[in-house]
Write a structure and sequence with these properties.
By secondary structure, this protein is α+β, with helices and mostly antiparallel strands. It folds into three domains: about 45 residues, no CATH class; about 150 residues, no CATH class; about 120 residues, Alpha-Beta Complex (Cathepsin B, Chain A). It has eleven helices and 20 strands. Strand 7 and strand 8 form a beta hairpin. Helix 3 packs across helix 7 and helix 8 packs across helix 11.
Length: about 350
């Protein structure tokens, strides 16, 4: 962004340094334009862009602090032309029942990361997102369901890099990433393909030419159910646990767990009232519903960089036979709780029926 001041009497460098806009003689974090006026007329940095008298709100300041792009494989142990190092699209280790947790980065797209964390519980469904790929040549064909039609979106692995905020920080991409990044790349590439699919480019000339979408489009908030539909081609909706009794809710989850994805939101008021420290910023999804000796239990999946946010509910008595009967463990983000605790401490449930997917 261009900064064009008029004569400033020597005060401009001090003001820029005070506002954090220059560091070691290099401009950084400039997200506004000044076309006229002296140094005393220059406003402090705010989340506004002033150009030609028009004011546009900047809702994603963090995403604007990027000055270069880099390949995702450059974060791996080795890099270079035709060399992907230890990077791969999916985890090539021993067979797992899930593809690992997905973490949100700089974009305001928690809704999309929630959808990815539900899909990661179905490895076959995650692999169906790609028609094909070549990591060495940076070519990926992603399969998305846009406007009721399956669409093939071709992308490479070049992504913006957020500048280090401190000298000791390490540059990193602002797209979402797998907990095994850079060894696993699929969440970052799916997000880039989704951003490309949401981009509209007008190839006109002059004032009529306009482009919208891209990273800004997917980073301004959205709906989880719509993201699930775009990624799976299914049919999505939402309901509240307040609308159904715990026993009927368990029957619903148990009977549809094979054909549905369930994303859950925490009931903040009840958690605070009872001292249950479930994190409302973490991403929760239902992985299993099982019964044991007349009791009904739900296995939850939690994804957050701070670790597993079970709110202490994982410490409640759970039958050892139930824990031993399934491969998921607490260290990977899974914990069990009774259907009554689930009904009490979770509120909104987003469901997506996989009507356009085979048995995944």
């Amino acid at each position: 962004v261009l900064l064009v001041p008029r004569p400033h009497g020597g005060r401009l460098p001090q003001l820029l340094d005070q506002w954090g806009l220059i560091r070691r003689g290099v401009f950084v974090n400039i997200d506004f334009v000044v076309q006229a006026g002296g140094a005393e007329d220059i406003p402090p940095p705010v989340s506004l862009a002033v150009a030609g008298g028009d004011v546009q709100e900047r809702s994603h300041r963090k995403s604007l602090k990027t000055r270069r792009w880099a390949r995702l494989v450059e974060y791996g142990p080795t890099s270079g032309p035709g060399c992907s190092g230890g990077c791969s699209l999916f985890d090539k280790s021993a067979h797992k029942t899930h593809c690992g947790r997905v973490f949100q980065s700089c974009l305001d797209n928690a809704y999309f990361v929630e959808a990815l964390n539900a899909i990661t519980l179905r490895p076959k469904l995650a692999r169906r997102l790609f028609h094909g790929w070549s990591i060495d040549f940076s070519v990926y064909a992603v399969r998305l369901f846009k406007n009721a039609t399956w669409t093939c979106v071709e992308v490479d692995d070049w992504v913006p890099v957020r500048d280090a905020m401190e000298d000791t920080d390490v540059d990193h991409p602002f797209c979402c990433y797998s907990e095994h990044f850079p060894g696993v790349l699929w969440p970052s590439l799916v997000e880039k393909a989704y951003a490309k699919a949401c981009t509209i480019r007008d190839h006109g000339v002059g004032a009529d030419a306009a482009s919208t979408g891209g990273w800004e489009a997917v980073g301004g908030g959205g709906r989880v159910d719509e993201a699930l539909v775009d990624l799976t081609g299914g049919v999505a909706s939402s309901f509240s646990t307040r609308d159904v009794s715990p026993d009927r809710l368990f029957v619903y989850l148990h009977e549809l767990q094979r054909d549905c994805l369930f994303v859950c939101r925490v009931h903040i008021e009840r958690c605070i009232r009872n001292g249950v420290t479930l994190n409302p910023q973490a991403h929760y999804a239902v992985n299993r519903a099982a019964h044991h000796e007349g009791q009904c239990f739900v296995q939850m999946f939690c994804a957050h960089p701070s670790g597993v946010n079970s709110g202490g509910l994982d410490g409640l008595p759970i039958p050892e036979a139930l824990l031993a009967g399934y491969p998921e463990v607490l260290a990977d983000g899974f914990f069990w709780l009774s259907i009554y605790d689930f009904h009490h401490y979770f509120d909104t449930i987003f469901e997506c029926r996989l009507v356009n997917s085979p048995d995944v």
